[in-house]
Request: fold
Amino acid sequence: MRLIHPDLSPALIQERPAAAESPRASPTLEEVYRQYGPTVVRWALRLGGPSIDVDDVVQDVFLRVHKSLGGFRGDAHLATWLFQITRNVVGHRRRKERWHQWLGGSACEVAGHLPSLGPTAVDDVERRDAAKRLYRVLDMMSEKYRTVFILFEMERLSGEEIAKVMEAKVETVWVWLHRARAQFQKHVEQLRAREER
Reply:
């Protein structure tokens, strides 16, 4: 998997952004990429679903990080900041993809070209069908509840970690998660009913 955009040359990666006003120097793009690259890939996969182009998302995230790293003041934890960037990039791509599907054809026409990741053709079809069904349900959810659900159920983050990432109180996260699970279950039942017709 190619994770660095050709525009991010080794010289550019090692280039240290202008120091922030705080006494502590900002990390370099290379340090951020080494520490959080796999995490950003995982977030992109989880938030975007099977049709997302992970390489493009990760490139876009780290290009944005490169542009903004010098201004990172450390008000939030670096992982929280990166998650927000990843979430924004994925959200933008998902909105763009919805328009593309609406204008450009069926989901099969748009995402049918994705390469097989499973060991056999049957396993791959089953896995893709399950992922499509899951993301069909997730796409019916409100964006806030969808994100909390993914972070807790798929990313396995604690309530405290989600609270930091979502910049909310832990108690609020538990309320959101409760509502997200109820919303998820309701949409699963609606999808089942549609498929049984």
